[in-house]
Amino acid sequence: MSKEMNGRKLLLICMPIASLFFLTACAQTTQVYRSPKGYDFNKGEKLFLPDALHELSGIAFPAESSKHIFANEDENGLVYYFAPGEHQYQQIKFAKKGDYEGIAISNGYIVVLESKGTVYSFPYSDILQREATNVKVGKDLIPKAEYESLAASQSDSLLYIICKKCAVDKSSSKVTGYVLGLSKEGDFFKKGEFKIDEKQIDLISSLKGKQFRPSALTKNKRTNEWYILSSINKMLVVANEKWEVVGAFPLDPSLFNQPEAIAFDDSGSLYIGNEGGDKANKATLLKFKLN
């Protein structure tokens, strides 16, 4: 971190956005927080989301374009998509009401993770319809537990899911993750599992005696590193391709009040989404451009 960065005492996050639901927003922090290489978490854009996404739980971009952001919330079986500057958002129904968490786009399909571990896929080409057709459901592929993190790796069309709270990790210092394949027909199949070592996180930034509880996951295509978000721990963890922890960054709670979603666009900008939480607050997206 540069001397100039260390010397900052007051930084502003402020950027006007021309849209009916992306409003001008300014936020300030009096403390400088460490950031992953290429980003500055003390400087970015804050965008308010529409009321329909108050319970924001996941965001994703298609691999070929970042014109639209895709998002879901944790109460309805709906996927929303929109672009900064547009006056309206679109939505498509894929399932009945439930507790839906992560979202990913891969191999021509939109995939949504239910908190109990069930996954849903429907063709990306369905987005212009009111309701998805040919929805595929993957049940009992991973142990029933609590999950919030889903990401796709475009290089191999695989899906990655990390436990938030799993019985297998109860007496362990590891957090378990699972790998699923996604066929050209939208069907799911098991591919393997992996572990994240909490001790490696603790060596870089203390977990303060708490277990690591991931709330969102994405892959940085530029570095091939995994970015793992935790709302409970107020932390972003970075892991390499072998899931070895290479960075751990505490998050400013005044900006990241309830971070539940994370994604990169095709220019390398990093987006982190906050659930609205208290009804008086709105869900937000924080955008950090690649330096």
Concise summary:
This protein is mainly β and 291 residues long.
Structural features:
single chain; 291 residues; mainly beta; four-stranded antiparallel sheet; 22 strands; 4% helix; globular; disordered N terminus
Q: In one word, what is the shape?
A: globular
The whole-angstrom Rg is 18 Å
Structure summary, number of beta strands: 22
Mean pLDDT: 88
Overall SS class? mainly beta
What about the largest sheet?
A: 4 strands, antiparallel
Estimated helix fraction: under 10%
**Total count of helical runs of at least 4 residues:** 2
Q: Outline the low-pLDDT stretches.
A: 1-29
Sketch the topology as an H/E string, one letter per element.
Answer: HEEEEEEEEEEEEEEEHEEEEEEE
Note the beta-strand portion. 35-45%
Distance between the termini: 13 Å
Strand order, biggest sheet? 3-22-21-20
Topology:
Layout: H1 3-6, E1 11-15, E2 25-29, E3 45-48, E4 56-60, E5 69-73, E6 78-82, E7 90-93, E8 100-106, E9 109-114, E10 119-123, E11 136-138, E12 146-153, E13 158-165, E14 174-182, E15 188-197, H2 198-204, E16 216-220, E17 225-230, E18 235-239, E19 245-250, E20 259-264, E21 270-274, E22 284-288
Explain this structure:
The chain has 291 residues and is mostly beta strands. Helices cover 4% and strands 44% of the residues. It has two helices and 22 strands. It has helices at 3-6, 198-204, and strands spanning 11-15, 25-29, 45-48, 56-60, 69-73, 78-82, 90-93, 100-106, 109-114, 119-123, 136-138, 146-153, 158-165, 174-182, 188-197, 216-220, 225-230, 235-239, 245-250, 259-264, 270-274, 284-288. The chain has a four-stranded antiparallel beta sheet with strand order 3-22-21-20, with no helix packed on it. Strand 18 (235-239) and strand 19 (245-250) form a beta hairpin.
